[in-house]
């Protein structure tokens, strides 16, 4: 099966594309995009991989679902297109960065700049129907993205996994803790952040400290 994804990833993920679940998932997604408005646009479904080649992965951030409002989702978790108002979780991410690494709050919520430095911004589900959160869950995407996490864990060394919130923390079982670094905290959503589970986690400075210890380039958050 032909999937339009960065060649560096295709080399590792081709076996997944040949499995029955992925063929069924592909049929489901095609039908959904024909019959409904879905996000992100078709060319951005695999944007997280296209902006962050396999051999460049230094950090993995795991989200759950793409944004389901107009012009928000761009294929990277927590990220929105240039010029789009920042959703609440992204606002809290930027607030923590401002305090943690003393970086000014940015105008753009487009996180392609992170991806291009080696941050894989992976949603567990890569598509969604407009205005219907979770509408493409349990259709096969989770099996695919779990396979992505396992492959990164198996074939890479010293990756920093940022697991924010209960959903992301469940992915810990897929990661080899003897080879990689895992940082956990509450989710940046207001519900969690306002209960004191997000702010002050210092994940951005901690990530750079780990990368520095490995002699790897730091992330400009």
UniProtKB/TrEMBL annotation:
Reactions catalysed according to its record: Hydrolyzes single-stranded DNA or mismatched double-stranded DNA and polynucleotides, releasing free uracil
Major subcellular site: cytoplasm
EC number annotated for this UniProt entry: 3.2.2.27
Molecular function GO labels: uracil DNA N-glycosylase activity
Intracellular or extracellular location(s): Cytoplasm
InterPro entries given in the database record: UDG_fam1, Ura-DNA_Glyclase_AS, Uracil-DNA_glycosylase-like, Uracil-DNA_glycosylase-like_sf
Domain (Uracil-DNA glycosylase-like): residue spans on this chain: 50-211
Keyword Cytoplasm set for record: yes
Keyword hit for Transport: no
GO biological process, one term: base-excision repair, AP site formation via deaminated base removal
Single GO cellular component term: cytoplasm
Entry keywords, A to Z: Cytoplasm, DNA damage, DNA repair, Hydrolase
Catalytic residues (positions): 65 (proton acceptor)
Function: Excises uracil residues from the DNA which can arise as a result of misincorporation of dUMP residues by DNA polymerase or due to deamination of cytosine.
Recorded family membership: Belongs to the uracil-DNA glycosylase (UDG) superfamily. UNG family.
Protein name: Uracil-DNA glycosylase
Species this protein is from: Flagellimonas eckloniae
Organismal lineage: Bacteria, Pseudomonadati, Bacteroidota, Flavobacteriia, Flavobacteriales
